[in-house]
Amino acid sequence: MRGSVRKAVMIVEDDPQRRKYFFEILDLTRVDVLSAVDAEEAMRLARRQQPELILLNMFSDKTDGVSFLKQLRCFGLGQKMIVLGMVGDEDEKAHAAASNAGPDKLLERQPAPHLVLELVAGYLGIKKIEVPPRMVPTVGRTRVEAAPAEALAKPDQAPGSEAPKPIIRSLSNLLMLTDDAGKQRKT
Predict the structure, then answer these.
(1) What's the rounded Cα separation, in Å, for the pair 58 and 74?
(2) Cβ(115)–Cβ(84) below 8 Å
(3) How far apart, in whole angstroms, are the C-alpha atoms of residue 5 and residue 52?
(4) CATH value at residue 73
(5) 131 occurs within a structural domain
(6) Cα-Cα-Cα-Cα dihedral sign, residues 48, 116, 20, 174
(7) Residue 154, in any domain of the structure
(8) Domain limits at 54?
(9) Does 101 map to a domain?
(10) pTM of the predicted model, to two decimals?
């Protein structure tokens, strides 16, 4: 068992860039972040560290996430671990196999940071996440800063004509996670 009283999240991902992406997001939650590059390492860590939540790439070069998840669900504590499976552009049959393996939720391969934070906070009961104001939503691996108006112009729009102004919001504005995070608001 971990010596820490903090909750733990494990990232199972063979791509170092994507592991870094998720680590930076999860670091904001103040949980212990573990990572594994393949199913064998992930199973050892899961048994030894017993993370509360696992972010799992279901289809990577080094990890057969479907087999790993089925094996994980076979041992006692693995049945209680929350697994967020990530899938990409695999075919319908692969998506069905991923779904049948038993993840708590399937996500796109590189989910938006705010979605990861909302899900982790919701599943782990985290009441508040402080996000530095300098952080902004990302698209792929590129930070979205203030885009020039020319970049937002429609292709058929004449150069120099009025383009819509970009809407820039920081994650801190998007994510004020409180006791009611994840609950539907009455309108």
Answers:
(1) 17
(2) no
(3) 12
(4) 3.40.50.2300
(5) no
(6) negative
(7) no
(8) 8-124
(9) yes
(10) 0.69
Radius of gyration of the chain (CA): 19
Q: Are 13 and 45 in contact (CB under 8 A)?
A: no
Q: Is 162 inside a domain boundary? A: no
Helix or strand holding residue 115 (H, E): helix 113-124
Domain tally, the chain: 1
Per-residue pLDDT of the chain (187 residues; tens, 9 = 90+): 444 468 999 999 999 999 999 999 998 888 999 999 999 999 999 999 999 999 999 998 888 899 999 999 887 777 889 999 999 877 888 889 999 999 999 998 888 888 998 999 999 998 888 776 655 454 444 443 333 333 333 334 444 444 433 333 334 434 443 334 444 444 4
Q: Is residue 81 within 8 Å of residue 46, measured between CB atoms?
A: yes
With the C-alpha atoms ordered 134, 135, 137, 138, is the resulting torsion angle positive or negative?
Answer: positive
Cα(34)–Cα(23) distance, integer angstroms: 9
CA distance 51 to 45: 8
